[in-house]
């Protein structure tokens, strides 16, 4: 599924400048657009591939890099029977040019002016737009308390793992709650089960006060119902808006 592009985001050429393996199934690709564009944390781009016979395939990918940084990082999970993601994993190389357009999506975003505390909840590659928010907060306003509840099957599939743990270790108001669904937890504060209401409530309790905003995605996979994300009536003591990216779940 691709969001409708705004008139300001026509297709343009973008060059792959760097490729880095994140996990066995997820690799980051950095792009240099021919016409650099401003963006917000949480937005995505569409990429378009064109075969020699003219056949085209388009897919959407969230931007992982913080808005203020150069280049556009996309973290792409390989689906073995997919069309576009295996191309990136098996064929794409530094120096290649593809087409992209963006930024797209104006709802699932966090801006500095939104303030905090914020609760972020995601699983698997659903963490990508949340990573842009975490990085943005680190660069722009560390005073905003953030709890990231991140679910992965196993330790080796935790995307951005070293960076996230490094940020958590700073104890500067960013709190990483990792939960592994198919392995024991590795850190004392982490979990080894699917995200559930109790885990969410405990993450909220670790924030200095109830979240001002919660951003959650890939919830069906996490087995959380709409009513439970965020679980705002239990224990948090507050009432706050949330933004949820349902289309991501539907599209995957
Ligand atoms: C806003 C947004 C942001 C996204 N961000 C990211 C991101 O950051 N990282 C990321 O990895 N992905 C992201 N995605 C998902 C991404 O757009 C692609 O859907 C994903 O990469 C799979 O594309 P593909 O071409 O490899 O697979 P596809 O060819 O689209 O296939 C996907 C799956 O559907 C099955 N399938 C295909 N056609 C059919 C059919 N006719 N009938 C039944 N099954 C079929 C395939 O077998 C495969 O399992 C995002 C999606 C959206 C909408």
Layout of strands and helices, then pairs:
Layout: E1 12-21, E2 26-33, E3 44-50, E4 56-62, E5 72-77, H1 85-90, E6 97-104, E7 118-123, H2 127-140, E8 146-152, H3 161-169, E9 174-180, H4 197-205, E10 213-217, H5 219-222, E11 242-245, H6 246-251
Parallel strand pairs: 7-8, 7-10, 8-9, 10-11
Antiparallel strand pairs: 1-2, 1-6, 2-5, 3-4, 3-6
The chain binds flavin-adenine dinucleotide.
Residues 1, 44, 59-62, 75-77, 79, 81-85, 125, 128, 247-248, 251-252 line the site of flavin-adenine dinucleotide.
How many discrete domains?
A: 2
Unique ligands? flavin-adenine dinucleotide
Rg calculated over all Cα atoms: 18 Å
- Strand order in space, largest sheet: 4-3-6-1-2-5
Helix/strand order, N-terminal first: EEEEEHEEHEHEHEHEH
* CA-based shape: globular
CATH domain class name of the largest domain: Alpha Beta
> How many helix segments?
6
Which structural class is indicated by helix and strand composition?
Answer: alpha/beta
CATH homologous group name of the largest domain: Nucleotide-binding domain of ferredoxin-NADP reductase (FNR) module
Beta-strand residue percentage: 25-35%
Q: Extract low-pLDDT stretches.
A: 1-5, 221-228, 230-241, 246-252
């Amino acid at each position: 599924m691709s969001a409708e592009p705004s008139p300001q985001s026509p297709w343009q050429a973008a060059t792959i400048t760097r490729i880095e393996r994140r996990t066995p199934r997820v690799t980051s690709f950095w792009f240099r657009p021919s016409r650099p564009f401003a963006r917000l944390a949480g937005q995505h781009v569409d990429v378009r591939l064109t075969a020699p016979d003219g056949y085209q395939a388009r897919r959407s990918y969230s931007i992982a890099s913080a808005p203020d940084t150069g280049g556009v990082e996309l973290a792409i999970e390989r689906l073995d029977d997919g069309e576009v993601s295996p191309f990136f994993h098996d064929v794409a190389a530094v120096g290649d040019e593809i087409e992209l357009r963006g930024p797209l999506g104006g709802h699932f975003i966090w801006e500095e002016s939104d303030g905090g505390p914020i609760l972020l909840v995601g699983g698997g590659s659903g963490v990508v737009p949340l990573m842009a928010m975490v990085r943005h907060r680190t660069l722009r306003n560390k005073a905003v308390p953030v709890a990231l509840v991140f679910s992965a099957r196993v330790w080796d599939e935790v995307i951005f793992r070293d960076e996230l743990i490094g940020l958590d270790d700073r104890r500067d108001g960013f709190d990483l709650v990792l939960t592994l669904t198919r392995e024991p937890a590795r850190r004392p504060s982490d979990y080894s089960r699917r995200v559930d209401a109790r885990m969410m409530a405990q993450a909220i309790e670790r924030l200095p006060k109830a979240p001002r905003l919660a951003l959650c995605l890939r919830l069906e996979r996490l087995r959380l119902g709409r009513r439970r994300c965020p679980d705002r009536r239990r224990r948090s003591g507050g009432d706050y808006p949330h933004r949820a990216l349902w289309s991501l779940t539907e599209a995957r």
